[in-house]
């Protein structure tokens, strides 16, 4: 079953959709950074089983999470380290606000 949850107050107007999994440390790393940069985003929780993550496969071509879709820039991206780098360079000061998150990488 596909789960959906609105995370920020203006989520219906949010340009960022964040595909994530409950309890995923890589997803939580991205969520912390989105919150740190005070970005509005729409969380979409996905199925724990890879074989059931068809929505993520359609959007990003992969079944792993985290995945973000940023309508402002037209970017769709997977892999937490890549997402962290992208968010920092696009919305942060680019100085590596969370260097440990950027180097940890990975996806579930």
The class by helix and strand makeup works out as alpha+beta
Tally of strands? 5
Radius of gyration: 13 Å
Shape: globular
Helix count, per DSSP? 4
* CATH fold description: Glutaredoxin
Largest sheet: 5 strands, mixed
CATH level-4 homologous superfamily = Glutaredoxin
Following the backbone from N to C, one meets helices and strands in this order, namely: EEHEHEEHH
CATH class: Alpha Beta
Give the strand order, joined by hyphens, for the main sheet: 1-3-2-4-5
What ranges have pLDDT less than 50 throughout 5 or more consecutive residues? Answer: 1-11, 95-106
Number of domains: 1
Outline the structure in words.
With 108 residues, the chain is α+β, with helices and mostly antiparallel strands. The protein is 34% helix and 19% strand. The chain has one domain: Glutaredoxin (3-Layer(aba) Sandwich). It is built from four helices and five strands. It has a five-stranded mixed beta sheet with strand order 1-3-2-4-5, sandwiched between helices. Strand 4 and strand 5 form a beta hairpin. It is globular and about 35 Å long. Residues 1-11 and 95-106 have low confidence and may be disordered.
Provide a concise account of the structure shown:
This is Glutaredoxin. The chain has helices at 25-36, 54-60, 80-91, 99-104, and strands spanning 5-6, 16-20, 41-45, 67-70, 75-78. It is α+β, with helices and mostly antiparallel strands.
Keywords:
single chain; 108 residues; alpha+beta; Glutaredoxin; five-stranded mixed β-sheet; 4 helices; 5 strands; disordered N terminus; disordered C terminus; Thioredoxin-like_sf; Glutathione_S-Trfase_N
């Amino acid at each position: 079953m596909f789960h959906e949850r609105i995370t920020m107050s203006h989520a219906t107007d949010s340009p960022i959709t964040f595909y994530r999994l409950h309890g995923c440390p890589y997803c939580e790393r991205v969520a912390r950074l989105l919150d740190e940069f005070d970005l509005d985003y729409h969380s979409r929780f996905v199925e724990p089983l890879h074989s059931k993550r068809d929505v993520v496969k359609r959007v990003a071509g992969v079944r792993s999470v985290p995945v973000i879709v940023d309508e402002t820039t037209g970017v769709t991206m997977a892999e937490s380290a890549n997402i962290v780098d992208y968010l920092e360079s696009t919305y942060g000061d680019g100085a590596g606000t969370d260097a440990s998150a950027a180097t940890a990488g990975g996806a579930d």
